[in-house]
Specification:
Blueprint: H1 4-12, H2 16-33, H3 36-40, E1 48-50, E2 53-55, E3 59-61, H4 72-76, E4 82-88, E5 101-104, E6 109-112, H5 121-130, H6 132-135, E7 140-144, H7 155-166, E8 172-176, H8 191-212, E9 218-222, H9 228-240, E10 245-248, E11 269-272, H10 276-290, E12 296-299, H11 305-313, E13 318-321, H12 323-328, H13 331-351
Parallel strand pairs: 3-4, 3-13, 4-7, 7-8, 8-9, 9-10, 10-12, 12-13
Antiparallel strand pairs: 1-2, 5-6, 6-11
């Protein structure tokens, strides 16, 4: 049973950020009462190997939906193959002033300028460690960023603090340098700044690997607003500094696809359907440049199973969902898995 159409009108009558909290409290309650399986239906299986992980399916949760790891077990019960939580920063911070999230219903898009609001990395790590999904071996990535008050020239130190804090508990760590809502953060995508950051992080990871005997996979999350020159430069750097996967992409600053929307001028990053084409374009550019040497995660604008298939066909090995869940509900997860299963079966048929 797809229950989401019944509750969507109520949720969409609320302020988007309030609706977010109401929906998660309801999800958590349904999970605790044990009724979530009856609401989401049977889970589809498509086991896949990705970056050394044995995933039950290739559809994951994108960072941003559960910033603090408060709802890990409830989200896992929806049928995701893996979860990514955060973005978390070294110190707790409230984020940008409200209102800071805007629903573009006609375009199935979201503009947000949350600004890494979170309880700090230590609180997040404690919640991950306490979750049943973690205890049962589920794959949980932790997305790290810098505090707003940290000068950009000191940003590397914040990322190093984050890396050290999550090292023992995270399945992988994602370095988020692509949010448009922390001042100057995207400047870290420039060649010189990125090289300094990645070299420092890789050096620290080698030290931690020697100390712990565990090599933590490190992913990099990028913006969709990159030039072909930046794609070329970033591709070279991520190979040099042993980045394990790229997440393409975060939100966009462009408003080309939402010119008709009343709220188009709100500051922040645009996600959802309006970012799909731009996000997929960047994904394809990295796929063409890296030729499979570094795995790619497709995220941005996935609103249907067909969209997920398009990401796979454009070079992604796995995908992540966020904004599409807001407009379609949890049924989107199983729809995406089934569409990818159909793609794989069709490919096998043509090969036989």
């Amino acid at each position: 049973m797809n229950f989401f159409p019944l509750v969507r009108p109520y949720l969409f009558s609320l302020d988007p950020e309030k609706a977010h909290h109401v929906a998660f409290k309801a999800l958590n309650l349904a999970h605790k009462l044990g009724i979530l399986p009856f609401l989401v239906g049977p889970k589809k299986s498509l086991p896949i190997e990705f970056c050394g992980f044995h995933l039950p399916n290739p559809v994951g949760l994108a960072a941003g939906l559960d910033k603090d790891g408060r709802y890990i077990d409830a989200l896992a019960a929806l049928g995701f193959g893996f979860l990514e939580i955060g973005t978390v920063t070294p110190l707790p911070q409230e984020g940008n002033p409200k209102p800071r999230m805007f629903r573009l219903s006609a375009s199935s898009g979201i503009i947000n300028r949350m600004g890494f609001n979170n309880d700090g990395v230590k609180a997040c790590v404690e919640r991950v460690r306490a979750s049943q999904f973690y205890k049962n071996g589920g794959v949980i990535g932790i997305n790290i960023g810098k505090n707003a008050l940290t000068p950009i020239e000191n940003a590397t130190q914040d990322y190093l603090i984050g890396l050290r804090a999550v090292y023992d508990v995270a399945s992988y760590v994602t370095v988020n340098i692509s949010s448009p809502n922390t001042k100057n953060l995207r400047s870290l995508q420039s060649s010189h700044e990125l090289e300094h950051l990645l070299s420092s992080l890789n050096f620290e990871r080698e030290k931690l690997t020697d100390e712990t005997g565990k090599r933590l996979p490190m992913f990099l999350k990028l913006a969709p607003d990159l030039t072909p020159e930046q794609v070329f430069e970033i591709s070279s750097l991520v190979e040099n500094y042993q980045i394990d996967a790229l997440i393409t992409t975060n939100t966009t600053l462009s408003r080309e696809t939402v010119k008709h929307e009343r709220l188009r001028s709100e500051a922040g990053g645009l996600s959802g359907k309006p970012v799909k084409e731009l996000s997929t374009k960047i994904l394809m550019q990295f796929s063409q440049k890296l030729k499979g040497r570094i795995p790619l995660i497709g995220v941005g604008g996935i609103a249907t199973g067909h969209d997920a298939v398009e990401k796979i066909q454009s070079g992604a090995e796995v995908v992540q969902l966020y904004s599409g869940l807001i407009f379609s509900g949890p049924i989107l997860i199983q729809e995406c898995i089934q569409s990818i299963i159909n793609l794989k079966n069709k490919s096998k048929f043509h090969q036989s």
